[in-house]
Predict the structure.
Amino acid sequence: MTTIRADPAWGMRDSCIACTCSYLVLYLVYMDKTTDIRKGRHCVYDMHVHLVFVTKYRHEVFSDEHLKALERIFSDVCASFDCRLEEFNGETNHVHLLVSFPPTVELSRLVNSLKGVSSRYMRRDYPELAQHYWKAQRLWSPSYYAGTSGGAPLDTLKRYIENQNRPA
């Protein structure tokens, strides 16, 4: 029989097999991605969100220079929320962001700040963009896409949860 040992790097002790088993799924899911795991005071996490922001009226606004400026702005805003901008790219009328964030961050507040700050800085630094705003004075459409990503596939997690030893 194989003995399951707790991993000291995760702050787990060998004394409680129940604790070891509860952390086992986390360890198995992340054992190949240990460099992406972030640690908080009371948690270990690897949370990512894919965000897509579309320009107001889907106007084709951005050039490469604009996208470089947006990447800097988004990176700074993410840092202020203790998040990381892992990947960024875009086209003339929308941008994609991959953000790693801690469980303490409210996603809606992060999005609000990303869109608001970037809109203000872009209007200040690139006044030629104002022609695309019309009377709205807003760079972004009020809607956005947010999709979580990472970790084990949903089918794997569902099977794990279904196979728990539920008391009778």
About this structure: The first strand starts at residue 38 and ends at 39. The chain has four helices and six strands. Helices lie at 17-30, 64-80, 107-125, 154-162.
